[in-house]
Amino acid sequence: MIKRRKTRTVNLGGVKIGSPYPVRIQSMTKTDTRDAKKTIVQIKELEGAGCEIVRVAVKDKEAARAIKEIKKEIDIPLVADIHFDYRLALESIKSGADKIRINPGNISDAENLKAVITAAKKKKIPIRIGLNSGSLPKNGTFISTTLKYIKLFERQNFRDIIISLKSSRVRETVSSYRNLAGLCDYPFHLGLTASGPPEGGIVKSAIGIGTLLLDGIGDTIRVSLTGDPVLEVITAQQILGALNLRSFGPEIISCPTCGRCQVELSKIVRNLESAVRSPQSAVRGHHITIAIMGCEVNGPGEAKDADIGIAFGKESGMLFKNGKAIKKVKSKDAVKELLRYLKSSTT
Fold first, then answer.
1. 96 and 153: one domain?
2. Could you say which of 242, 260, 284 is where a domain stops?
3. N or C: which end of the chain has fewer CB within 10 A?
4. What are the φ and ψ backbone dihedral angles of 304, each rounded to 5 degrees?
5. Three-class SS of residue 257?
6. Is residue 126 within 8 Å of residue 99, measured between CB atoms?
7. What is the pLDDT of the chain when averaged over all its residues?
8. Which residues pair with 25 in a beta bridge?
């Protein structure tokens, strides 16, 4: 069992962040926030995928004001992403943002920060101190810059803080979070910045975020990918599920296949995955392990811990439940048979 780093609790639009609560999944819209309709559509897609916190880019006052309209149509907390101009934070707070993200690399004036802190305190919303390696102050490090910034907030008696220290490099990200972990008790938002296209970004994010989560470090996560933000949410779920930190429905384990396999296993797995993850699936919210194995070598023996599965031979396979053989099924009927047994076991 992973022992979480002990942190204070921060309330983000009704979602509790911190060590007593689950590690939360966050993503960010890729739309122009000024286009409220498109932004709402994308947020609803993210909500449907399981996103629990969403961040929007606030590039000008028009984007900040759009937050008011967006908030009316969504059901998850909204974070305003602010760079360079502290007045955009003030406008976003006025529009109803549930949290403000500020980058110390481009907003550092004490009086300007004081104005943002005062407004956030009045609305009882948290602020994320979000550092990126590419915008660190000259001669500043992640740790020195963060600690200096935290002091500015604490002097204003403001402690509803979440911290992120993001680099595009895995080792720098991991070491920075580890070094800061023992120096404060604020919740951490984990992620790598500019991790790249999905193929490489997923690997880098899984290593970086996964390593820190195994250390017990991390309270919210975002997998940053160049592409569809829904994939960010799915990947985050898979990372948390792989570490048994949270469950998001059925887990499918399947063999990589080899020359022994005589069925189209990858097609069967894809069809099963699509069926169990569908919003209409009867087992979508249940933690069930399903094994799909290509031959007798990877049959019930290697998948004995699965709740249900099939070990295939030539054009057919043996359906097993809790390690015991149940019936022989044809490969073309495999997904249908599995779904039938899964439905009966969860109703």
1. yes
2. 242
3. N
4. -65, -20
5. coil
6. yes
7. 92
8. 221
pLDDT of 284 higher than 80: no
Q: Domain of residue 297: give its range.
A: 251-346
pLDDT of 195 over the 90 cut: no
126 assigned to some structural domain: yes
Indicate if 181 and 299 belong to the same structural domain: no
Bridge partners (DSSP) listed for residue 292: 254, 310
Pair of tokens at residue 38: 């498109």
The residue count for the chain: 347
Q: Considering only CA atoms, which of 58, 59, 62 is closest in space to residue 78?
A: 58
**Whether residue 161 is found in the same domain as residue 297:** no
Fill in the amino acid letter for 297.
V
Q: What are phi and psi of 188, to 5 degrees?
A: -110, 135
136 and 22 in a common domain = yes
Mean pLDDT of 157-163: 98
Q: How far apart are CA 207 and CA 201, in angstroms?
A: 10
Whether pLDDT at 346 is above 80: no
Distance CA 88, CA 93 (A): 9
For the segment 229-267, what is each residue's pLDDT rounded down to a tens digit?
999 999 999 999 999 999 888 889 999 999 988 999 999
- Choose the most confident range, by mean pLDDT, from 124-138, 180-194, 279-293: 180-194
Q: What pLDDT does residue 299 have?
A: 67
Residue 3 belongs to a domain: no
In the listed set 242, 263, 292, which residue is the last one of a domain according to the structure?
242
The two tokens of residue 6 are: 């002990």
| Number of other CB atoms surrounding residue 159 within 10 Å | 14
pLDDT at position 172 over 90: yes
The helix (H) or strand (E) run that includes residue 163 is strand 161-166
In a domain, 228, yes or no: yes
Instruction: Indicate whether 57 and 176 sit together in one domain.
Output: yes
